[in-house]
Design goal:
Elements lengths: L2 H10 L8 H24 L3 H12 L3 E2 H8 L3 H13 L3 E5 L7 E5 L3 H19 L5 H19 L3 H4 L5
Antiparallel strand pairs: 1-3, 2-3
Helix pairs in contact: 2-6, 3-5, 3-6
Length: 166
């Protein structure tokens, strides 16, 4: 579609809330997580958020909760509940930080690597199914665009210059 036509379509839809990119991303995100949770809960007894935290801890043994929050963008209180659940399931363990006893380091427990590997296989299969309506070239382009957008939003000052949320 030519760029001029895109501008026209966007201008015509400016009064519709569903035309906002934030709405579309939220809709996609919500539906994909809902579908993934069905599979992950059935196969592993965990949800997307718990697996996201488990993956981070497996990738960075000894990581602190503050670091997990920065990576996953999960709110502190919710992260505490997720961590407690993973500890209860014996998938992770927490120890006092050697430099500051007020901080806790999080470690993968025996068996967590197997859970993580299974979740990765399931995740790849679900992602392939989700993207099946796209050609290989469209998939590459989608990842390129999403990565570019995500990188630009992570840049210093991006939050201040973003203005009001839509």
């Amino acid at each position: 579609m030519p760029p001029k036509k895109l501008k026209t379509i966007a201008a015509e839809k400016t009064t519709e809330f569903s035309s906002y990119l934030t709405f579309k991303f939220d809709l996609i995100n919500t539906e994909l997580i809902r579908r993934a949770n069905v599979v992950y809960r059935r196969e592993l007894g965990l949800d997307v958020r718990s697996l996201r935290v488990l993956r981070v801890i497996c990738d960075a043994p000894g990581i602190t909760s503050t670091q997990v929050i920065a990576i996953t963008m999960i709110e502190k209180t919710l992260l505490s509940k997720v961590v407690a659940g993973l500890i209860e399931l014996h998938l992770i363990k927490g120890t006092s930080h050697p430099d500051d006893a007020r901080r806790t380091q999080l470690w993968p427990a025996p068996g967590s690597a197997r859970t993580r590997a299974t979740s990765d296989k399931l995740g790849i299969a679900m992602e392939n199914e989700m993207l099946s309506s796209l050609t290989p070239g469209e998939r590459i382009e989608l990842y390129r665009i999403v990565d570019k957008l995500a990188d630009s939003l992570r840049m210093p000052g991006a939050a201040q210059s973003a203005g009001q949320e839509q």
